[in-house]
Amino acid sequence: MKRQDSTLYVDGLALPSSIFYPNISPSPALCLCHGIPAGTYNPTDEGYSVLAQRFADAGFATMIFNFRGAGEAEGNLDMTGWTRDLRAAIDHLFSSDIIDKSRLYLAGSSAGAAISIFATAHDARIAALVTFACPADFRFLANEQQARSSIDHFRSIGLIKDPGFPPSVEAWLQGFSEVSPIRWVDKISPRPILLLHGEEDDIVPLEHAHRLVEHAGEPKQLLVLQGAGHRLRVEEAAITTALEWLRAKASLTSI
Questions:
Q1: End-to-end CA distance of the chain, in Å?
Q2: CATH top-level class for 2-248?
Q3: pLDDT digits (tens, 9 = 90+) for 110-150
Q4: How far apart are CA 233 and CA 88, in angstroms?
Q5: DSSP annotation of 26
Q6: Residue ranges of the domains in the chain?
Q7: What is the pLDDT of residues 43-68, one digit of tens each?
Q8: pTM
Q9: In a 3-state reduction of DSSP, which class is residue 151?
Q10: CA 26, 31, 32, 37 torsion: positive or negative?
Q11: Please, are residues 193 and 127 in contact by the beta-carbon 8 Å criterion?
Q12: Cα–Cα distance between 243 and 249 in angstroms, integer?
């Protein structure tokens, strides 16, 4: 396995990224999309790097990157900006000459899953999608007062860095509404989608998953993980299920 680090530049912002390549070529490709961090950046947390290595070992050229505002990425948390960040990541991954461009997949967690649904609905290059704990919408930001409270929180943990951001709370709030998965999930069909959700998710209640699968076209599958909470990337059953599902879609032989 080979790791290639690079920097994506989107709207003048530097976003760190890495691709983990398997020892086969051409290989199917996967982009992993993180959610909104729960706390301040922890440079010792290598969770997504470990996941990427695992998917690369299973045969996928696997990309990870930081959305603007998160980790070591420049900029401020902004959902419409995140859509452009993911588009740039997909372009970068797609440009590799050692991937099979017909087998390009996304897997996203929470808000990253929401952005992944938006991206898949708008980009025919994406062949299939896995979501972990995906919200159907962002009702917790239903009004400007709630938005201002969230902005203060995001500022306190470093996701919003610039004092004057956002210049318009209304426009920032509209970004969450625009990317709400319930508006886009029906545009993914006939490409397959697997929705994974924890039965005990206290951040994104299970009813969000049921709403999404009801609106999604075929082929679709919802798997509820008994006893699991919101952070499905640390749940072995979730990762194993996603990996085997993607391997089946990519026509890779069993590990």
A1: 16
A2: alpha beta
A3: 999 999 999 999 999 999 999 999 999 998 877 788 899 99
A4: 23
A5: S
A6: 2-248
A7: 888 789 999 999 999 999 999 999 99
A8: 0.96
A9: helix
A10: positive
A11: no
A12: 10
